[in-house]
Amino acid sequence: MCTYATQIRTVEGSGKGTQGWFPLQTASVYFDHPVHAHAEHTLNIDFLAPDRGPGARVALELTAASARELVDAITAALASAPAELTS
Amino acid sequence: MDDAIRAGTTRITGAGGDDVEAYVARPEAPSTRGGVVVIHHMPGYDRATKEITRRFATMGYDAVMPNLYWREAPGADPDDAAATARAGGGVPDDRLVGDVEGAAAYLRALPSSNGRVGVIGYCSGGRQAFLAATSLPLEAAVDCYGAFVVGTPPDGFPLQVKPLVDRTPELSCPLLGLFGAEDSYPSPAHVEELAEALRASGEEHEFHVFPDAGHGFFAVDRPSYRPRAATEGWAAIEAFFARTLNA
């Protein structure tokens, strides 16, 4: 199935794509068919900078289990840092 | 060689008079023949859909596939273009219809054309094939597991689409539908709802729901590929176009 549902967030930071580092503007997060991963569905994240064109993209395709592990790892990493650094 | 084909990139006039990239595949043998507009799936104007376009040329048709993401992402890699289109809300329905109209006009203007044009679409393109067939004068339409011809998109749905089943009486041509019994969008219930609408308005149609197949069973480069459904599906397409596109 095509799930279509997409979460889009404004993000601040940088990503490294095929042409080097660039400032990120948005993240599209969706659970749908991957382009490359060998799974029928994956949790996909496109970090984008639309002002720089379609090629300004860092793409991830993670299995659902891997995506949940990543969420836990992000949460744990943030929790381990002093609160004044992450607020 | 009378089975030679020629394929490559060209430009067609799409919606709003826009110059749009398109992939064309044609038999080289002189003959008069029908044409096929191929609508690519959501992952875009990619190698797999170009292979499908060439296959229609080997079957004896002039085939053309417009790059539906050309406005947002000219010259981009197909996956980058698809990501850009998704983030932007997808392809507007009126632009899709204009691009298919331009592709059909391109085919009908070829010296080899018999004037008959069909449309086929995969995934999101299945819905768009139905949309085109209810909006334009065509001779055949094939919907390969298109979601949201019936049914409503889930919450948070970013694409600018709406169900089309109410347009069923406006179909201009016979419809072939190819679906997987294990698909959720469209589900077997969605397929039956569409079939009922087609029966109610007396539209010529032929539906196949393949067991042990879900969404994307034609996609040979994906885990969703189901050889039996794909083989039987291709046979149904070949017979359907032979009946509808040959003058």
Helices and strands, with pairings:
The complex is a heterodimer of chains A (87) and B (247).
Chain A: E1 6-17, E2 20-32, E3 42-48, E4 57-62, H1 64-80, H2 83-86
Antiparallel strand pairs in A: 1-2, 2-3, 3-4
Chain B: E1 5-13, E2 19-27, E3 33-39, H1 47-58, E4 62-66, H2 78-87, H3 93-108, E5 113-122, H4 124-133, E6 140-144, E7 175-180, H5 188-200, E8 205-210, H6 227-244
Parallel strand pairs in B: 3-4, 3-5, 5-6, 6-7, 7-8
Antiparallel strand pairs in B: 1-2, 2-4
Descriptive labels:
heterodimer; A: 87 residues; alpha+beta; four-stranded antiparallel β-sheet; 4 strands; 24% helix; B: 247 residues; alpha/beta; eight-stranded mixed β-sheet; 6 helices; 32% helix
Q: Summary?
A:
The complex is a heterodimer of chains A (about 90) and B (about 250). Chain A is α+β, with helices and mostly antiparallel strands and about 90 residues long.
What does this structure look like?
The complex is a heterodimer of chains A (87) and B (247). Chain A is α+β, with helices and mostly antiparallel strands and 87 residues long. Chain A contains two helices and four strands. Chain A has a four-stranded antiparallel sheet with strand order 1-2-3-4. Chain B is of the alpha/beta class. Helices cover 32% and strands 23% of the residues of chain B. Chain B has six helices and eight strands; from the N terminus they run E-E-E-H-E-H-H-E-H-E-E-H-E-H. In chain B, strands 1-2-4-3-5-6-7-8 form an eight-stranded mixed sheet, sandwiched between helices. The longest helix of chain B is centred in the C-terminal third of the chain and has 18 residues, at 227-244. Chain B starts with a strand and ends with a helix. In chain B, 53% of the residues are buried. Chains A and B meet through strand 1 and strand 2 of A and helix 2 of B.
